[in-house]
Amino acid sequence: MKILYGGDYNPEQWPREVWEEDYAALGLASIDTVTLGVFAWSHLQPDQDTYDFSRLDAIVERAVEAGASIVLATATGALPPWLAHEYPEVNRTDFEGRRHVYGQRHNACPSSPVFRKLSAELAGRIAERYAGTPRLVAWHVGNEYGGACYCDLCAAAFRVWLRERYGTIERLNEAWNATFWSHLFSDWEQVVPPNALSEHWRGPDHTAFQGITLDYLRFMSEAMREAFRDEKAAIRRVSDVPVTTNFMGMYRPIDYHRWAADLDLASWDNYPPGPREHARMALAHDLMRGLKDGAPFWVMEQTPTITASRDVNPVKRPGVLRLWSWQAVAHGADAVLYFQLRQSKGACEKYHGAVLDHAGRTDTRSFREVATLGSELAALGPAVLGARTPARVALLFDWDSWWAAEMMDGLNRHVKYPAVVLAYYSALWQAGAGVDVVPVTASLDGYDVVVAPLLHLLKGDVADRLEEVVARGGSLLTTFWSGRVDEDDNAFLMDVPGPLGPVLGVRVEETDSAEPGVVNPVTLPGGLVSEASLVFELLVPQGAEVVGTYGADFYAGTPAVTRNRPHGPDGGEAWYVGTGLDAAGVGAVVRQVLGRHGLVGPYADLHDVEHAVRVRDGERYSFLLNHAPGPVEVLAHASGTELLTGRRVEQGDTLRLEQTGVLLIHEDR
Predict the structure, then answer these.
(1) Where in this chain does the record put each Beta-galactosidase C-terminal domain (predicted)?
(2) In this predicted model, what pLDDT tens digit does every residue of 187-204 receive, in sequence order?
(3) Residue that terminates a domain, selected from 380, 404, 425
């Protein structure tokens, strides 16, 4: 038992003699896991009435012979050409209303009965044939679900979904505020998908009716989920091996929280958009871990070298692959897998990074780094496998708020939900706080601090549960635009921040906005001046004390940041940040909130040095990771054994972390 190490392998693209070379090379890198058959539909089922498993049989047999752990896909990540040709309705219709023909891979309408039937049939046949395969560790359904369809089949399914959600046409009209612009519907059949032909202009985020578009986003996420569930049900008839699909971190089109219950384990593909994205990756890891109540997750894909999907694709610098992989393990990953094990010879991913390049070399820098990491994971063995990640801070992440905040008119379209969330997470990360990223529906018991950036849309009893956190002595931190709309995306008919007003002790009188680059200085405790931007809410305290004030414009000297103690000095605190503070400002506020609970970590003052902990059966494993541009020295916070070298560490020892360096300390009890 150990952290699984390997990745996507496509032997169907290569003659048998190449397989032998590959397995010999992969053995040198301590690779022990292969994901097979992700895009195999066209050769497994050459026509509707024919199944041919001979090639996959040989591929699986060779993996078994190699002693590999196997992740077996249902092969439904892309349609075969014959299916799109014989049943054109399985091809998607895009946002502009154009029916697509065959091509690419995210190309199936999730509402198509033909697609749903044939994909589930294929999944079932694969499961029946390979359920007893030795070392089969997971089933991989589909691949990177995403996109959207606006065809007549989806329109009909949308109407069914709406009828189930709202029950009556009157409730639908109420939810959508349909008295506006003469939109009262008198029959379900009058409802059409919101796209460029109906409610939208200037793209998917400009809509006349946010409620309609919000519901279509919810519906499309659910439609793809139902297709996933079809395939999982077919597998479950013959196998109880865990079922997953590969998510994509902070990915806008799919509400992963709504999918979470259907996954046996969470997995995701880690392709950060730049070279200095360590806090963003940590956030995504914690988001994926939070899908299953803190259970370990898998990194299903990462690249050993470069991606192949951007305008400029730099290689990972020396040591970065190892550092980012250990970061994943530190945040709860029980598998570190690649796309891909051998580089494809043609098509759009022929230059995407791989463990083995086109020449199959094992003497390259990138292969040596893959092999070094493999040997370390092998030597570590089962030590952290299954270990949990303790946290006393919860950060709320909400797809509904993301969707609603980015398609509203009247405020500032330069504000992006993930950027606001990342700003607050980054401050928590740099402060060394253990964080669980959870949905707004999660229990908040056991958390001392709850951070809810841009909690724009309030659903269920979240306002009451946030008040309970403060009532029992905890701290709440939220930001501008929070508490503005209900679950239907209709404004609360009360002072902003709506139901959050009583606990926050403040009301928003006006909301000013500015173009990027325009700043208003906000003075915070200790004389720190933060260059705030984009959003400037004019706050009127209703019991809250002023913590930060604006320095410019007609509202100079008025509150920008407040703190409320609604239950007196012995109760908790509720912080409200009414503007877009810069990183220093967010960091100052976050540290003041954490400091009240003693949650600032031992390495918080070392910039870009990450400290993370996993715990199993009372054993604590501390990870120290150096993301800084050079070496750093730290004082050991605890005594124990450094597992990657075997050396003894005493509390207070000076530890040197080279650039991209990693230390893993098994702490003494």
Answers:
(1) 613-663
(2) 999 999 999 999 999 999
(3) 380
